[in-house]
Amino acid sequence: MLRATLKSLLARKLRLVLSTLAVVLSVMFVSGSLVLTDTLGRTFDNLFANIFTYTDVQVSAKSQVAPQGGDTGGGGTNPFPAAVVDEVAKVDGVGKATGQVFLNGAIPVGRNGKVVANQTGQQFGANWTGEDQLVSLAEGRGPEADDEIVVNQGLATTARYKVGDSMDVITRDKERKTYEIVGLMQYAGGRASMAGESAIFFTTKQAQLSMLGAVDQYNVIDVRSKDGFTDEQVRDNVAKQLGGGFVVQTGKQLSEESSKQIKQILDYFNYVLLGFGAVALLVGVFLILNTFSIIVAQRTQELALLRAMGASRGQVLRGVLLEALLIGVVGSLFGFLVGLGLGALGAYLFVGLADGAEVASLGFPVSAIIASFAIGILVTMIAAVMPALKAARVAPIAAMRESATPDRPLTKLTIFGAVITALAVGSLTWGLTGAGDGTLWLVFGGVLALLVGVALLTPVISRPLVAGLGALFAWTVPGKLGKRNSARNPRRTAITAGAVMIGIAIVTAISTLFTSLSTALGDELDKDLQADLVVLGQQTSEIPPTITPEQVEQMKKLPGAATVATFTADAAQVNGQQNFVVSYEDPAAVVKVLKLKTDQGRIDQLNSGEFMTDKKTAEDRKWKLGDTITVTFTKTGEQTLKLTGITGETAVGAGIVVSYDDARNGFAFPQPWQAFISVKDGASVGETRDAVDAIIKDNPEVSVYTKQEYVENNQAQFTAILAIVQVLLLIALAISVLGVINTLLLSVIERTRELGMLRAVGLRRRQTWLMVTTESVVITVFGTVLGLAVGAGLGAAIVTALKDVIGFGAVTLPWTLMVVYFVASLLVGAVAGFIPSIRAVRLNVLNAIAYE
Questions:
Q1: Which residues lie below 8 Å from residue 238, measured CB to CB, with a gap of 6+?
Q2: Handedness of CA 452, 453, 456, 457 (dihedral sign)
Q3: Where are its TM segments located (predicted)?
Q4: Distance between CA 186 and CA 689 in Å, rounded?
Q5: For residues 54 and 255, what is the distance between their CA atoms, to the nearest angstrom?
Q6: Minimal CB count within 10 Å: which of 180, 451, 452, 566?
């Protein structure tokens, strides 16, 4: 029996390749995701190990607003007196202590007057302390005057600067000054940058003034250990001397901490990739199930002959499962290898964004290997169980028949599908209303169960729907034949269309969510925002683009400006929890521009020691007028604030608002982040915009936008997410296309004699091609229509359920995208039918008629 199974498997090479391909497609995205994140993780481990190779011990001040139990780690933003450096230098085991200024916030301006773009968001400003093991001059000399700088070679290349050129720099004090480049530096090993960052080195005095705001201040101390002392000993000695206000870490700790932060980001990235893999896997399950169903159906006579020759039901069952096991193992192996290639390609593309980073050796994570073989083998075996049981029940007398046994009634399948769908709806309802614990799992489980339930109901749905869709193509004889072929086996059509349905449904649901959210945001901004012009910049790091107070004053004096309202923001701790707080320079102007309504107290004025908030935030935190909170600001530390005003519910201007006096003293960047300008009646918005443009022409960080442009910019983030969703659709459709090709190819093999008979009675090659293509298009369009309906319904249900939680408006269906998906399904169906139709056309008529 074993020999017969192996010979049968190898005798039909096309069928073997197609069934193995189904497993490969199901496995490769999951393995690729795990390989990619493992490779990137080790890449950044190596990167930070290199960065801190020459660091023995580093000292920085703790942040006032760090999360409880945490610290800022190396390179904190809080300055400390230069005297601390002398104190550290006297500690036992310290060979040398060097005070340094080194932190993000030195923004280079290019030759075109615009900020030099940086993918990493890391634009460091530092004091030049001379060459050492890590840093050396490639050209020129170090800065000696306060208007001289040294820049890293990576920045010089990107911005096309050289030694002797002048370059403007905007520093953390938000002053723009012109400096002369007197030197270009490189890192150990001749690196132009460590990871794509820019680095600008000033004289120590200028770095202290521009980056820290005062002379005789540092934010980092680089400590060299004496011979005979370990780094850990020196760290402990320094920490004991300085007390709890400082963070003291070894180079190894700094490397691990920095790498850990990157890995946390990579974890979320991995979740997205695994989401793609999950969709691919779900679609692949249908593909494998369909493949084995057709294979067993084609082998009915062969299996019955084995039964007639004495094979038992158990032997037939084991034979089919053995075939599935072998295909699962081979498919898993190739799936892992293809995923390995995808992971490697993704790693090189990702790391290519960071100029100085180099990809570590390609990872072979145990999790990827286990997941690949577990998924591939398990899914294949599960998919083969039902066809195997069906094969084992084939009676020997079936060997005398020319056709496979007819499909069983769909009653049990329909009832089972209805039960699964009902349970899915219940799980979704429970999860979305938040009535139970594990809300997220209830929603995810409900979505998965709904897709499976609808897929089980698809055979019943397919009969009327396929008949209706097929009627569109039934105006020719080949079209009628293609329509009847797609409807003759509801189970097969349903499983093939189910693979298409799942991808379309998921993408349509996500598109509905983000289209509804985008529309709601646009409606809120359009309704509540009274500004005609908005001045703001694009934030690419923790350093916000700001508008100078002088520029704000000039805007207020414009003849066309009726009201100019500004706001700024910063991270803070509110009652011990990390929060984001905002501040208005003129609350009365903001109330007018944002159409804020008073719910309680006063909202048009805030004095030092006071704050206001919106109604929803007050209810969520159980605050009432007169309550006090403790806010820990970046610069001034803890301060008690009293609630003096509550605004009505609003999507614009919500949150915790502190007085401008407190913000000016306590915020890291108290300068305005945005300015909202309403134009006087009769004044020209275009002329006022030109005037604002002229005011901010020397501030490359910010730009001025009309209200419509501002709304569109806020909606652009959803457009970007939808673009990622389209990639998900492409992956699902790619597998679905292969599924349709697989099904039709096997179907052509199964109907070889039938096709030969049709050709013999006069069906021409072109008509044969049209018949198979029609069948492909009908199946694909059926899956698309079903997916659009399920996805739109699912998206609408989620939007409705979360309307009060997230702030959705009415359900907005992505009609344009849905039409595009439908039209694309016609093209996909035609493409998917090309290969099977070519095979059908090339059949030898006489051989086909004699085919067994």
A1: 57, 59, 88, 91, 94, 223, 248
A2: negative
A3: 268-296, 317-350, 362-389, 410-432, 438-457, 493-514, 720-748, 769-802, 814-835
A4: 43
A5: 11
A6: 180
Residue that has been written with the tokens 């944002």 in this structure: 594
Instruction: Measure the CA–CA gap between 824 and 838, rounded to whole angstroms.
Output: 22
Spans of all domains in the chain: 57-261, 461-530+706-852, 548-695
DSSP structure string for 1-66: -HHHHHHHHHH-HHHHHHHHHHHHHHHHHHHHHHHHHHHHHHHHHHHHHHHTTT-SEEEEEPPTTP
Integer Cα distance of 489 and 744 in angstroms: 12
User: Which stretches of 696-764 are DSSP H helices?
Assistant: 707-750, 752-760
pTM of model > 0.85? no
Instruction: Give 300-342 pLDDT, tens digit per residue.
Output: 666 667 777 777 777 777 777 887 888 889 888 998 888 888 8
First CA to last CA distance, the chain: 21
Secondary structure of the chain: what % helix, strand, coil (to 5)?
A: 55, 15, 25
DSSP letter assigned to residue 638: E
The whole-angstrom separation of Cα 391 and Cα 12 is 18
528 CA to centre of own chain? 30
Handedness of CA 151, 157, 158, 159 (dihedral sign): positive
Give the number of other CB atoms < 10 A from CB of residue 399: 17
**Structure token pair of residue 558:** 């414009």
242: number of CA atoms within 13 Å, CB side? 29
Which residues have CB under 8 Å from 563's CB, separation 6+? 589, 592, 593, 676, 677, 678
Backbone angles phi, psi at 545, to 5 degrees: -75, 135
What DSSP string describes 651-715?
A: SSS-SEEE-HHHHHHH-S--S-SEEEEEEPTTS-HHHHHHHHHHHTTT-TTEEEEEHHHHHHHHH
481: which 2 tokens? 């034949």
- What angle (nearest 5°) sits at the alpha carbon of residue 784, between those of residues 782 and 788? 120
pLDDT of 612 higher than 90: yes
Q: What is the dihedral sign for C-alpha 392, 398, 402, 405? A: negative
pLDDT per residue as tens digits for the range 172-212: 878 889 999 999 999 887 888 887 788 999 999 999 999 98
| Dist CA 80 CA 184 (whole Å) | 29
Q: Which residue has the tokens 């009675």?
A: 761
Classify the phi-psi angles of 807: left when phi > 0, otherwise alpha if psi is within -120 to 50, otherwise beta: left
CA–CA distance, 628 with 529 (Å, rounded to integer): 30
User: Can you tell me which residue has the tokens 């009293």?
Assistant: 642
- DSSP secondary-structure letter at 109? B
Secondary structure tally for the chain: helices H, strands E? 26, 24
Strand partners, 666: none
Residue 833 has φ and ψ, to the nearest 5°, of -85, -5
Distance CA 143, CA 182 (A): 6
Tokens coding 171? 């520093």
Per-position DSSP letters for 424-445, written without gaps between them: HHHHHHHHHHT-SS-HHHHHHH
Contact 594, 529 (CB under 8 A): yes
Which pLDDT score is estimated for 405? 47
